[in-house]
Design goal:
alpha+beta; 193 residues; Endonuclease, Chain A; 4 strands; 4-stranded mixed β-sheet; 5 helices; elongated
Length: 193
């Protein structure tokens, strides 16, 4: 099958495809904002500069187009009829980059949530997905708070145990000194060494 557009028309069409501030991304941002979340956009300090970053919750959100990221099993992830080899390679590279980016972010302690374009089609579906996303973020935030509380509790328990051991050791040394008194000249000699 041949391309219906000539080279200049195809170039014009492809040059107007955005990577940032896409309609699905804006829809997710508006939905999160309406649900009370505050976030940062395209944080370049993080691997892959995720579309939406919620530092308070430790969540990075990737809003992916079904075609561009090869959403498996999705009816919108169609295979092009022309230049098939190029598109298969491009989509495979995008998938691989997504996997690597997700692994890097998770290694840094972030939770990565992927929102697909097809989940946001239709008002009912998009509202349901945004509600589910908000619940996921809150759950992740609560679990991170609980983990931090457990870490703090463990740290304070270790500190109390260490203090108790030091106190007990001092008591034992005092008891030994009472039972077996050491002459002061020997104590002075041991301190001088």
């Amino acid at each position: 099958m041949t391309d219906r557009l000539n080279t200049h028309q195809r170039h014009y069409c492809m040059s107007h495809i955005r990577g940032k501030n896409t309609k699905p991304e804006i829809l997710v941002r508006k939905g999160l904002h309406a649900r009370g979340f505050r976030f940062r956009l395209h944080n370049k300090k993080l691997p892959g500069s995720p579309d939406i970053v919620l530092p308070k919750y430790g969540v990075a959100i990737m809003v992916n187009g079904c075609f561009w990221h090869g959403h498996k099993g999705c009816r919108y992830a169609t295979e092009p009829k022309t230049n098939i080899e190029f598109w298969e390679t491009k989509i495979a590279r995008n998938r691989h980059r997504d996997e690597v980016t997700t692994a890097h972010l998770e290694a840094l302690g972030w939770t990565v949530i992927t929102v697909w374009e097809c989940e946001l089609r239709g008002k009912l579906e998009s509202n349901a997905r945004l509600d589910k996303l908000a619940d996921e973020i809150r759950f992740i935030g609560e679990s991170k708070i609980q983990q931090e509380a457990m870490r703090q509790q463990n740290r304070s328990m270790r500190r109390k145990l260490r203090e108790e051991m030091i106190r007990r050791q001092a008591q034992l040394e005092a008891e030994i000194d009472l039972l077996f008194p050491i002459p002061t000249r020997i104590k002075k000699a041991s301190l001088e060494e």
